[in-house]
Amino acid sequence: MDTHQRRNSSTARRKLYQRLGFGLLGLTTALTVLPILLIVVLIFAGGVPSISLEFLTGFPSNGMRSGGILPAILGTVYLTFFTTLFAVPLGIAAAIYLSEYAADSALTRLIRIAIINLAGIPSIVYGLFGLGIFVLFFNLGTSILAASLTLAIMTLPVVISTAEEALRSVPQSFRVVSISLGATKWQTVRRIVLPQSLPGILTGVILGLERAAGETAPILFTGAAFYLPTLPSSPLDATMALPYHLYVISTQVPGMPTRVQYGTALVLLILVLGLNLIATIIRSRARARRQW
Amino acid sequence: MEIKLNVSWKKTLQAINEQVITRAIQASGYSAILFVVVIFIFLMREGLPALEEVSVSNLFSARWYPIEDYFGILPLLGGSLIVTLGAALVAVPFGLGTAIFIAEIAPRWAREILKPFVEVMAGIPSVVLGFLGIVALAPRLRVLLDLPTGLTALAGSLLLGGISIPTVVSVAEDALDAVPRAYRDAALALGATRWQTIWRVTLPAARSGVITAVMLGVGRAIGETMTVMMVTGNAPVIPAGLAGLFAPARTMTATIAAEMGEVAAGSVHYHVLFFIGILLFLISLVINLTASAVVFRQRKRAERILS
User: Fold this and answer.
1) pTM for the full model?
2) Which string of b and e fits B3-32 if b means at least 16 CB within 10 Å?
3) What sign results for the dihedral spanned by CA atoms A151, A261, A77, A281?
């Protein structure tokens, strides 16, 4: 009887602890998620009123305090385009190497460690590196080209690791069948493995682009311009860019109307979250359609 | 005869093609190593001259005032340290709590909503957070804590904590997910509550992954640039203990970002900024090497147990 009672009270206490513990963890989760929601809501609430055709397609005027942000939007599009051009072929090839060709050797492990380290290098250090190698050493000047090359090396680890994961998820039997039918290794990769993993690879590419489009620090000294009266005419010109423009108008220009700041932040946020959304949709649709 | 020749010709061509492509793919794989090495070489090339041009006692002094040739990096190290410490105080409890909640407690539908939501945070550009820090967070902190300015290390810490949380959550959640189901089933079968199972079985089993999560989160915080540059007030003073959280601070990253645009290439100031870059590179190298060593060891141990 006595032990029975004691057991009962200990069970009750354990139940109570569990309820308290779960409640606490639920609270931390809510406190993590709510600020994210708040940030998005704040930017939308502040930015939506300033979005207009003129804002999206006009040039800045009156010391950037009015007018539009077209050069910044286009600049970010240019930078992202060239970054893709450099990072995607190299990143996918590296992923193919790791997933399809590399043996489990010390050298392969070294490559993996290098990728982890590339992913961890602070973005401003990429900026320094880009300044040292592309702007000065290769003499490209502060240009779209120098900034894109810098961004490309920075996004490479994202592209490699997501693409590798996608390639690895293709069942081994697909490769075995292809090889047994007389296909070479490359034919197998090209005709069987790559098409099957395409949605996953695409997701990785878009996530890489998202990172490139939103970054400021790597382009500070490699290609971003404070203000330009005309659009860049070649990849060797400097360019305005959305993230850098937001930095400039929120810290460097006195008397800046918050309307323009919020509007710029909103356009940048929509661009980046839009890419994120596309990646998520591709991923989940591919998962639903997968037959293996 | 002619047909046979044709076929063998084709075969040779195909073999050459295969060789070339294989080599190209191999080279791309190795390129990651090449980039790390080249980055390091270029940082050294531009940063090491600082050690010849600036005396060590100047470099490790408490005064950063480059216009008058004072290049003391201690205030910058201190600024990075205090902002990162504050960020860790935010990111570790909230990140781990969220990871445990998502991995162990939340029902399936909530998990499907929460995971992409936290990923959204990872996607918000740091310059947007810096902007919100200036217009929304700092003024409120100033009023709330009755400070002369809201642009303090604390504002930086809060935002950096938010930036690090997604890293902590996703790595820690993966680690918790990787704990075999049998562990949990065994604990529950022995009469443990779900809470006890989480606390005494699942978390200890995922320990090394959780440590990795914290380390990578801290690494993310140390390297963050734009947000801290915009909200910490950028005063190069050595923080006075934890009270330094409530005063302006200036990190290593923010110093490079704010000053590199205005120095002449090849000047002493330029070399010192690259020297700070070397320090940042080495810090991130140490953090990531340790983190990957932990992961590799963990994998080996798991293989041993399973075989």
Assistant:
1) 0.91
2) eeeeeeeeeeeeeeeeeebbeebbebbbbb
3) positive
- Of the candidates B21, B39, B292, the beta carbon closest to that of A129 is on B39
Q: Which residues of A touch B265 (CB under 8 A)?
A: 136
Neighbours of B265 (CB within 10 A): 13
**Given an 8 Å threshold on Cβ–Cβ distance, is B120 in contact with A276?**
yes
Question: Measured between CA atoms, how close is B55 to chain A, in angstroms?
Answer: 23
Structural domain boundaries, residue B90: 74-265+286-306
Residue A107 lies in a domain: yes
**What is the CATH number for B174?**
1.10.3720.10
Virtual CA dihedral for A259, B233, A216, B220, nearest 10 degrees?
-120
**ipTM score of the complex?**
0.90
Q: Which residue has the tokens 């994120």?
A: A276
> Do B21 and A114 lie within an 8 Å CB cutoff?
no
Cα distance from A101 to chain B (closest Cα, Å)? 8
Instruction: Please tell me whether residues B86 and B147 are part of one structural domain.
Output: yes
Query: d(Cα A90, Cα A147) in Å, to the nearest integer?
Result: 17
Distance separating alpha carbons of residues A98 and A163, to the nearest angstrom: 10
B96 and B9 both lie in a single domain: no
Tens digit of pLDDT for each residue in B103-141? 999 998 998 889 888 888 888 999 999 999 999 999 999
CA distances from B304 to A258, B177, B199, B207, B277 (A): 59, 19, 24, 17, 40
